[in-house]
Write a structure and sequence with these properties.
Largest sheet: 8 strands, parallel
Helix content: 40-55%
Shape: globular
CATH architecture: Alpha-Beta Barrel
Length: 254
């Protein structure tokens, strides 16, 4: 039985002070239920403070929004895996569509970061998904196949089970448009079948696949009630602590 995983990707939002206020409200709303794995993914500036808060109650785990594949080096503005580990970061989001489209990250770059994360005992949340034009051209499976093979090249079956895959149709991110539960399930089922083909069925069954794309409290339960949807990578709706707590509770019911 795969444990649901719901992550709050705050993107470039939340000051340290705002992060503290969010966590105070969210953890109170969440309560003691730990049936869903919760990951808080703040901007880099708030990682230390959120880590400190989470070290007390341990109701959620800490994630980072990105990292470089090198350990140290002359890479101005970048963050390494050892730097994240020092702050007790457990997860790192890699290959988010905004990184791919706005910052030109290729599958090869995502693969380098995935390898570095695994080697540093960080759990990567690897994002894949098609654009609207690719969906309209009936290329969804072709795109997902290419991104899975490219982003996860060289990952062993043993390592694969600790990878989380986030399926995020680019056309549904921040647009208010959401894939229907059936569209999302079809994509997730294809991803799991592809993992079984490239690795093995037993490993594929253990991999958690999140849905990301305008997830909110109103649609979370139906989305996460699908057979192959194991959680959500939540963007805009995760900035409201009470709304995000509702999404986590919906996952618990799913």
């Amino acid at each position: 039985m795969r444990k649901k995983i719901v992550a709050a990707n705050w993107k470039m939002n939340m000051t340290v002070g705002e992060s503290m206020a969010f966590m105070d409200t969210f953890l109170h709303e969440l309560g003691a239920d730990n049936s869903v794995e919760v990951v808080i993914v703040p901007p880099f500036t708030a990682l230390a403070k959120v880590s400190e808060i989470l070290s007390v109650g341990q109701q959620a785990k800490l994630g980072a929004q990105n990292m470089h594949w090198e350990k140290p080096g002359a890479f101005t503005g970048e963050i390494s895996a050892p730097m994240l580990r020092e702050l007790y970061v457990r997860y790192v989001v890699l290959g988010h569509s905004e990184r791919r489209t706005l910052f030109g990250e290729s599958d090869e770059i995502v693969n380098k970061k995935t390898r570095a994360a695994i080697d540093a005992a960080l759990r990567p949340i690897v994002c894949i998904g098609e654009t609207l034009s690719e969906r309209d051209a009936d290329k969804v499976e072709e795109v997902l196949d290419r991104q899975i093979k490219g982003s996860l090249a060289g990952v062993s079956a043993r390592e694969l089970v600790d990878v989380v895959i986030a399926y995020e149709p680019v056309w549904a991110i921040g647009t208010g448009r959401t894939a229907t539960p059936q569209q999302a399930q079809d994509a997730h089922a294809f991803i799991r079948a592809k993992l079984a083909e490239l690795w093995d069925s037993a490993s594929a069954e253990k991999v958690r696949i999140q849905y990301g794309g305008s997830v909110k409290a109103q649609n979370a339960a139906e989305l996460m009630g699908q057979a192959d949807i194991d959680g959500a990578l939540v963007g805009g709706a995760s900035l409201d602590p009470r709304g995000f707590a509702e999404i986590v509770k919906a996952a618990a019911r799913g």
